[in-house]
Hints:
Structural class: mainly beta
Number of strands: 11
Order of helices and strands: EHHEEEEEHEEEEE
Strand content: 25-35%
CATH topology: Deoxyuridine 5'-Triphosphate Nucleotidohydrolase, Chain A
Number of helices: 3
Largest sheet: 4 strands, antiparallel
Distance between the termini: 38 Å
CATH superfamily: Deoxyuridine triphosphatase (dUTPase)
Amino acid sequence: MKRIAQFFKVSESEYLKSGSKEEYEKITLPTRATAGSAGYDFFAPKSFSLLPNEGIKIPTGIRAKIDDGWVLKIYPRSSLGFKYRLSLDNTVGIIDSDYYFAENEGHIFIKMTNCGDKELFIEEGKAFAQGIFIEYGITVDDNATANRTGGFGSTDKK
């Protein structure tokens, strides 16, 4: 397998903008459960519950340094989508390689909603989402030269 990325924690000062020092100290970097797993599990920095139709925005404390030509796609864990209809609010999270250099240190947030009919509870330290690295191509006439400065949603702001 080609190794194209690495996970890091954001700085404590960046995490404290959206979470606590206690949570920060317990952040676990994403890992694969097995050698055949495509997805890297993201772990909850704190316990949370979601009633039906309730949503949450989770600061993961994680950033990803990704080689050019690759993207990290974020999904709910398959079992949670199947059992609870847990969905990401943006359907699929897209983490671009240049997001690592954003003003917020490339801090990955995951916003999700329980679209099912029963309460979902996730314990601190348990996997709740997964990220998969995918190679992508660009058009032959591509001429993008801008550099990212902001965080989430910044590329459409001029």
